[in-house]
């Protein structure tokens, strides 16, 4: 595991498994036929918002601590020191580490931290240990990385005769001499006395750009080419009466000043002192999360809305109330829409926003997924097909749908609080579920051009499709994506008209055939397997000039 190709092969295997099991009952059925017509004429095309597809990150399933954050020590601040604490006793000691022995055994006594279900320590890599210690006497201390049974010592470094009468920051590097996927950090001593520890941190030296994130997980996010990042704000479950909401409003304004204020402002100066003088590009604020039905929501919403609008008139504010079927009764730039449902229902919802008013706030589909367990499990092809169909509908309705993100993003395989998720990982492995890989086929959609598309088939209720023109650093492509959500194969003909230039067949994933259809500039033919997602790219010669002018 670990390579992109390996993950893609996993996705292919899932696809083939569906064909060989779920679809056996249809092998004797005759294939259906379908005609997909794309109108690539410039007059009827429309630019998709640059922000259409992005990411939603929340601390669930150990997505952050024990996940994307590369910190190896669990509970490094000792704030959870109880029977479930990650700090474990080794011999007769406590975390207020009192060494009681006069003649301690070889190797000393002390404490250990197993991290998040074991630390992944790899031979040849360096790990940075930072901690604060305090003692009334001089200290002799050894920090070691050992395998989970404590028998294999992978790295060790010692501190001799230091005098930390005040809190003293200790920084050390440990070079691993072996590999163990379930390692632990040990802090031991052979000298009688008391040592206090705080903020014990162990980080790999090779994090993403030195920022403290696991590189392999960040790379998987970058593969999606996200155009925005959504993350929680203050609280999800609490509710406050509007008459006492003002302190919370001030707290939010202070937080916004920390992110957006100048380096000379009260909170902006704090940000600058922390090493980030540049302002963060915070452009949106969602007021609440799934709170529309709560008693005080509308009153509180207006308090936040008015205060933020006055201080930051450019920030776009997002309401929790669904405006897709009826107008909102309060001001908003966007409204939040969440959907967790069955595969069949999400497939039907590809048309959800077809009739939504184009006047008023835009739509932010900030959380979507197939989560019904019989359809999704821990990630399935069926779920991803329904999600792909739903996304084609968002593309086609992107004049009103401004942004969309899948949820949840991550799950540590040792803590599956919520299933399914896009990316599954443990301390040293990771893979994308089919829902993740489907999103990679929509990563070029943001900022591209959407074209009208029609499907003619008596089987059309089981099909979903979209057509975009997108551009990489060298070429321009017409991409047609099609979901076959039914048990029958489909003999497909794709007809495109309105293209201004010729086709570069060498760079296309499908080759046009001679057409007998009227007014069809290019015709492509293919067979769609049952329960499948297919993407076609037709490389165009000069169309990029027109895209650049849009």
Could you characterize the architecture of this molecule?
By secondary structure, the chain is an alpha+beta fold. The protein folds into three domains: 32-45 and 452-540, Immunoglobulin-like, CATH 2.60.40; 54-68 and 211-238 and 283-289 and 313-445, no CATH class; 95-206, Sandwich (Jelly Rolls). Helices cover 20% and strands 32% of the residues. The chain has eleven helices and 29 strands. It has helices at residues 4-21, 64-68, 215-222, 246-260, 266-273, 297-311, 343-348, 373-376, 381-396, 434-440, 543-549, and strands at residues 32-39, 46-47, 55-56, 88-90, 97-99, 109-113, 119-121, 126-134, 139-147, 153-162, 168-175, 180-189, 193-204, 229-230, 284-286, 316-319, 334-341, 362-370, 401-406, 410-412, 423-425, 430-432, 449-451, 453-456, 463-471, 476-484, 490-497, 522-528, 532-540. The strands form seven sheets. Strands 4, 6, 7, 9, 10 and 12 form a six-stranded antiparallel beta sheet that branches. It has a five-stranded antiparallel beta sheet with strand order 2-23-25-26-29. Helix 4 (246-260) crosses helix 5. The longest helix is centred in the first third of the chain and has 18 residues, at 4-21. The chain is globular. Mean pLDDT is 88; it is low at 1-28 and 544-548.
């Amino acid at each position: 595991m670990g390579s992109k190709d390996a993950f893609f092969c996993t996705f292919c295997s899932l696809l083939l498994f569906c064909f060989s099991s779920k679809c056996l009952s249809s092998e004797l059925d005759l294939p259906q036929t379908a005609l997909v017509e794309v109108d690539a004429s410039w007059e009827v095309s429309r630019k998709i918002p640059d922000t259409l597809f992005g990411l939603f990150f929340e601390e669930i399933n150990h997505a952050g601590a024990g996940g994307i954050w590369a910190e190896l020590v669990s509970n490094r601040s000792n704030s959870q020191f109880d029977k479930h604490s990650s700090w474990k006793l080794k011999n007769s000691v406590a975390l207020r580490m009192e060494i009681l022995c006069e003649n301690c055994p070889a190797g000393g006594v002390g404490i250990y931290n197993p991290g998040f279900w074991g630390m992944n320590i790899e031979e040849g890599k360096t790990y940075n240990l930072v901690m604060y210690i305090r003692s009334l006497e001089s200290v002799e201390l050894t920090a070691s990385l050992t395998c989970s049974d404590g028998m294999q010592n992978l790295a060790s470094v010692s501190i001799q005769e230091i005098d930390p009468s005040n809190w003293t920051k200790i920084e050390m590097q440990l070079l691993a001499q072996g590999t163990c996927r379930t390692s632990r950090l040990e802090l031991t001593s052979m000298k009688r006395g008391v040592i206090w520890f705080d903020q014990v941190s162990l980080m790999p030296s090779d994090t993403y750009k030195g920022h403290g994130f696991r590189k392999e997980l960040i790379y998987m996010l970058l593969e999606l080419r996200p155009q925005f990042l959504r993350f929680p704000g203050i609280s999800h479950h609490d509710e406050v009466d509007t008459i006492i909401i003002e302190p919370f409003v001030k707290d939010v304004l202070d937080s916004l000043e920390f992110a957006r204020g100048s380096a000379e402002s009260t909170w902006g100066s704090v940000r600058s002192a922390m090493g980030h003088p540049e302002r963060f590009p915070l452009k949106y604020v969602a007021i609440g999360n799934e709170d529309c039905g709560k008693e005080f929501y509308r009153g509180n919403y207006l308090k936040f809305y008015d205060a933020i609008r006055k201080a930051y008139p450019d920030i776009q504010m997002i309401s929790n109330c669904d405006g897709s079927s009826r107008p909102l009764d309060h001001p908003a730039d966007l409204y939040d829409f969440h959907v967790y449902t069955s595969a069949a229902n999400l497939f039907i919802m590809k048309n959800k926003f077809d009739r939504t008013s184009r006047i008023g706030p835009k739509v932010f589909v900030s959380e979507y997924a197939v989560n019904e367990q019989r359809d999704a499990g821990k990630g399935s092809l069926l779920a991803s097909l329904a999600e792909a169909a739903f996304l084609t509908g968002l593309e086609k309705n992107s004049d009103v749908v401004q942004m969309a993100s899948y949820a949840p993003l991550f799950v540590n395989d040792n803590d599956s609080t919520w299933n399914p998720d896009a990316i599954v990982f443990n301390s040293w492995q990771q893979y994308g579920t089919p829902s993740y890989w489907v999103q990679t086929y929509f990563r070029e959609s943001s900022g591209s051009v959407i074209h009208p598309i029609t499907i003619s088939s008596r089987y059309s209720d089981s099909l979903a499709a979209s057509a975009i023109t997108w551009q990489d650093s060298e070429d321009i492509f017409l991409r047609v994506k099609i979901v076959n959500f039914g048990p029958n194969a489909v003999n497909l003909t794709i007809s495109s008209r309105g293209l201004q230039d010729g086709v570069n067949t060498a760079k296309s994933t499908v080759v046009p055939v001679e057409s007998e259809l009227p007014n069809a500039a290019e015709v492509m033919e293919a067979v769609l397997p049952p329960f499948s997602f297919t993407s076609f790219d037709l490389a165009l010669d000069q169309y990029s000039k027109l895209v650049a002018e849009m």
